Amino acid sequence: MFENIPVEVGLVHEGERVRKNDMQVELGGPSESEKFEIVRVLPMDQVTDGKIEIIGPDLSEMEPGAHYPIGILVEVAGTRIETDLEGVVERRVHEYANYIEGFMHLNQRYDIWIRLSKKSFKKGLTSFTLIGRVMHELFRNELPIIERVQITFITDWEKIHPLYAEAMATYEARDARARGLSDDDVDEFYGCALCQSFAPTHVCVITPQRYANCGAISWFDGRAAAGIDPKGPIFAIDKGECLDRENGEYTGINESAKKRSMGEVDRVYLYSAFGYPHTSCGCFEGIAFYIPEVDGFGIVHRGFRQVTVNGLAFSTMADSTAGGRQVEGFHGISIEYMRSSKFMHADGGYNRVVWMPSEIKERLKEYIPAEVYDAIATEKDAESVADLKTFLETHHHPVVKRWIKEEEPAEETTGAPVVFSAGDIPVTMGGFRVILKNAKITAEKVIILPVKPPVQKGR
């Protein structure tokens, strides 16, 4: 199938990383504000099967080590394909691009990040035409409902700009469709294992009120994908019995997680970052991170280039959050999930969110309760935890009431896990001083007892 492609193509190359020192060129990613990939379903007579077009510099014309904007437009046609399947087909771009040796594709939609390795470039992978040929063959062979495919690669920023605006409008229209449906309205959820090559124990659980972490697959998309390819990477999950409505725990999800993670994950909470949080892959749009000093959550999205209020950048926290692990207090999420009434429901929702970049805060304005909107700090209001605490107090954020409650003396506390974290925690014992670096301690129960002075003899 790929005899004329100068590099290997196959599943074995999924999950390959191209590091900065090894890259020939970079496309999209954090350095470019506008990038996209989008699929459009068109009438048969408007699609020329196998046509591949390049608008802007080709790979061979790009300066080594430099970064460029990127737009990928995939136009498909078929007698049985409908516009409802655009998002499903679109997510396959990530999968198929990663089959190509030395061609790394991360994320989705408006967050795509691509690197071509020097090694593959030297082997002859010097044109988007070759990339397009691989994608064309895989689309036609893996998804039989597609009868015609034409692909356009855009690297000219002036051409990308108007198409980017159109793509964003399309994404929004798709997302809005699922917002009126609740998790209680359906009998099935859906799972997506497209990212298991990067995170072997991760499976996204997609419900009407919890979008895939990547932000690209809604419940409707999951239903459509499972319908056209029942044995594919997007599949149905029977809800089963609801074990915990507050946290969002279902027997069907637990059984699916255990099977798909080879036993590594056997419980999942859909609506909490504590206990058994949903696993994270690496393609998540944002991270909800716990800030123990104020008992609240910060939010940061992939496009935020500064250091967050806890002193860490998105990339640093992403390394700790990704990989298919359940990391309490670090939760990979999609932007669309932040529009849901179930967003971190068990943890307090927006009444527990204390900090987020101003760009995301403005973007989500109509979904953040009016009474808490002004009390959520941004990078313009607080650059440190100390600044944040002052801001929350002066703006009467609901989380402040939690501080007062926690300061009241108590003999025993139970309930949600208590998380303590610090840069370094010194422990002195047996004549040795042990320092726990970047420590985080999670406790199921905290018991506070008064320390009584020793009784002295003769008194």
Note down, in words, how this protein is organized:
The protein is α+β, with helices and mostly antiparallel strands and 459 residues long. It has 3 domains: 11-177, 2-Layer Sandwich (Bifunctional carbon monoxide dehydrogenase/acetyl-coa synthase(codh/acs), Chain M, domain 3), CATH 3.30.1650.10; 183-284 and 322-343, Ribonuclease HI, Chain A; 414-447, no CATH class. 24% of the residues lie in helices and 22% in strands. It is built from 11 helices and 23 strands. It has a 4-stranded mixed beta sheet. A hairpin with a 2-residue loop joins β20 and β21 (432-437). The longest helix is centred in the middle third of the chain and has 21 residues, at 157-177.
Layout: helices, strands, pairs:
Elements: E1 23-28, E2 36-41, E3 52-55, E4 67-68, E5 71-77, H1 86-97, E6 103-106, E7 113-117, H2 118-123, H3 128-142, E8 148-154, H4 157-177, E9 188-192, E10 204-206, H5 219-228, E11 234-238, E12 242-244, E13 249-250, H6 251-260, E14 286-291, E15 296-301, H7 314-321, E16 330-333, E17 353-355, H8 358-363, H9 370-373, H10 385-394, H11 400-407, E18 412-413, E19 418-421, E20 424-429, E21 432-437, E22 440-443, E23 446-447
Parallel strand pairs: 1-4, 2-5, 3-8, 15-17
Antiparallel strand pairs: 1-7, 5-8, 6-7, 9-10, 9-11, 12-13, 14-15, 14-16, 18-23, 19-22, 20-21
Helix pairs in contact: 1-3
